[in-house]
Amino acid sequence: MASVPRARRYVRDLLDTAGHRQADDALLLVSELVANSVRHSDSGRHPGGRVTVAVAKHDATIRIDVIDAGSPERSPSLRAGTDPGSCTGRGLWLVDELASEWGWHDTPAGRVVWFQLAGS
To answer: Among 38, 68, 42, 71, which residue's Cα sits nearest to residue 53?
Structure first.
């Protein structure tokens, strides 16, 4: 899953330049969302699939979008009763716990899962 380290490096380089205080949280959440895209979307199931990461900063808040081909069978949702100690199934739980806001929406090109981290 080479996509995850590549996405982390990209976001780390941008946030280091911007000096954002929550870079560690952002890197963790990007890792989780890109891994979910590769595992659960058509981007990861079909040859040549793409996952795109977009980063925007407004004042002290950063917003990160993870864009993939989506999946007609699955939509992002929090699992009920997520075990924080589990090794799997915690991606969106972590996003929900750490992000100041998050959500998802479908577009004609696929799906966007996004989160925001407010700086202090």
So the answer is: 68
pTM of the model: 0.89
Q: What is the pLDDT of residue 81?
A: 64
Question: What pLDDT sits at residue 109?
Answer: 85
Contacts of 48 (CB under 8 A, 6+ apart): none
CATH top class, domain 3-118: alpha beta
27: tokens are: 């890197």
For 23-44, b/e burial (b = at least 16 CB within 10 A) is bebbbbbbbbbbbbbbebbbbb
C-alpha to C-alpha distances, 55 to 9, 24, 63, 88, 111, nearest whole angstrom: 13, 15, 6, 26, 16
Beta bridge partners of 53: 66
DSSP, collapsed to helix, strand or coil, labels residue 80 as: coil
Position 77 scores a pLDDT of 82
Percent of the residues in the chain that have a pLDDT greater than 90, as a whole number: 60
Where exactly are the structural domains of the chain?
A: 3-118
